[in-house]
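Worked example 3 (structure in, sequence out).
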């Protein structure tokens, strides 16, 4: 398998080079040169596999044997040995049509651990085997940062700098990042929002001289390995249902911000997994809902919501989808992205909008509805959803038919977002790992949202 850019101006490369490149050197996003098709027979065979073995099977289509099988197996098994549930991503049935896939069983209680435990180990492996310097630069609305730091803290040959929006992440998210005392970790708290943080790091990654000088590596979903790692649980969830009952297509409702998690679902569907609708759940920051419903991609006003990890306007992975929507035409993608930069918006016509509708439905969920869902299901079934997951459940109620089977992704544990849960007078016990954080000292540097200030911090830390 070769890896190419959505903008077509990067020489094709192999799996590890694609992993190290992060953002494509022409400013586009890395994608595989083709999407492998998994036969029905293979899908049947995979049903019985453990999560880890399923991941090994899926990765075998993408890694070109650049990592010897036994090494990859160790990386995968080590990565999920830190999870609290043997199944890695256990599936819970809530009612006849609704299943919840718990993606929060990793060390930082959010879905990001699934990919980032693995990527942390992979970076460590590549640092040793290829003698590469690994300086990770990432932006977070709270969960990616915590998971990435946890994945590489204290690891030799790796440094990590994470930008988060100052006072716009939950208290638990802030503590998870800033109580880490290892010397290889730098937390920058930026006076701005997540989009500001993401734009800053994307500009630095696009400056190829700067990127190479400081050996910058990506852990955000701009990195294709994030996307690929996240496809595994779509397959895994589907197989758990298919083993229990005859099932045709399954819908997935995915709380969405940067379009990474749901793009992994799109990839799984293109690979041949029988997915019906990919239901895109958002909050008041609903640029993607407006795109799916009206064909207009235009950032709106920024809102701070009960689901702060999805307080995102400009969705990083949208460009990957534009590539497939436009018949894999890199020139068209370049033209569209240039137009977006110049005009601040993009619009697609009825024909392409029809194509979008073949795969996606979308629902933006207001704060009051989000809290109502948490309260309702807690009373009905005793299951406590975090606010992001609750948006996914509301979107399931709105978009998935009564006779259709739907998996909602539980993207975080409710303890991470107690600020919202407390508003509906539900008292939840905190897991010990989270409770302990409140007694630890915090280390972080608060900076202005200013490129030169950021560059100085990075030169000092990575230089
Ligand atoms: C808890 C939670 N849910 C949902 C999302 C949205 O996922 P994505 O950015 O992959 O669309 C995020 C952040 O990305 C998150 O942290
Ligand atoms: N919600 C994310 C935002 C970054 O998304 P990513 O998938 O590109 O890493 C977060 O929690 O940081």
């Amino acid at each position: 398998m070769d890896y190419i850019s959505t903008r077509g101006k990067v020489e094709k490369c192999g799996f590890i080079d694609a992993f190290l490149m992060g953002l494509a050197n022409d400013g586009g996003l890395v994608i595989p040169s083709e999407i492998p098709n998994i036969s029905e027979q293979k899908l049947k065979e995979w049903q019985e596999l453990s999560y880890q073995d399923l991941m090994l099977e899926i990765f075998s289509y993408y890694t070109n044997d650049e990592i010897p099988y036994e090494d990859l197996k160790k990386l995968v098994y080590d990565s999920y040995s830190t999870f609290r549930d043997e199944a890695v991503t256990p599936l819970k049935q809530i009612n006849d049509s609704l299943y919840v896939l718990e993606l929060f069983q990793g060390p930082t209680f959010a879905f990001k651990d699934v990919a980032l435990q693995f990527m942390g180990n992979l970076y460590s492996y590549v640092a040793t085997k290829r003698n590469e310097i690994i300086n990770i630069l990432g932006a977070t609305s709270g969960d990616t940062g915590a998971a990435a730091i946890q994945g590489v803290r204290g690891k030799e040959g790796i440094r990590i700098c994470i930008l988060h929006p100052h006072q716009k992440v939950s208290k638990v998210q802030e503590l998870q990042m800033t109580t880490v005392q290892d010397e290889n970790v730098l937390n920058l708290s930026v006076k701005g929002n997540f989009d500001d943080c993401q734009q800053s790091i994307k500009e630095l990654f696009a400056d190829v001289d700067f990127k190479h000088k400081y050996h910058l590596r990506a852990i955000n979903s701009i990195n294709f390995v994030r996307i690929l790692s996240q496809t595994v649980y779509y397959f895994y969830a589907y197989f758990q249902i298919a083993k229990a009952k005859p099932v045709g297509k399954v819908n997935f409702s995915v709380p969405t911000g940067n379009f990474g998690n749901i793009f992994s679902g799109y990839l799984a569907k293109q690979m041949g997994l029988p997915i019906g609708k990919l239901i895109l759940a958002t909050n008041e920051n609903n640029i993607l809902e407006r795109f799916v419903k009206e064909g207009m991609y235009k950032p709106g006003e920024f809102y701070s919501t009960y689901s702060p990890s999805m307080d995102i306007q400009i969705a990083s992975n949208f460009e990957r989808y534009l590539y497939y929507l436009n018949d894999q035409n890199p020139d068209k993608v370049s033209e569209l992205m240039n137009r977006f930069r110049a005009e601040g918006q993009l619009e697609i016509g009825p024909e392409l909008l029809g194509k979008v509708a073949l795969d996606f439905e979308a629902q933006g969920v207001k704060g009051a509805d989000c809290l109502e869902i948490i309260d309702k299901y807690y009373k009905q079934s005793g299951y406590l959803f975090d606010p992001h997951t609750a948006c996914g459940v509301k979107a399931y109620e709105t978009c998935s038919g009564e006779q259709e089977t739907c998996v909602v992704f539980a993207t975080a544990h409710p303890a991470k977002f107690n600020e919202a849960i407390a508003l509906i007078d539900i008292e939840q016990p905190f897991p010990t790992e989270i409770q302990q954080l409140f007694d630890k000292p915090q280390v972080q540097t608060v900076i202005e949202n200013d490129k030169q200030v950021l560059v100085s911090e990075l030169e000092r830390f990575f230089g």
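Notes: The first strand starts at residue 3 and ends at 5. The mean pLDDT is 97.
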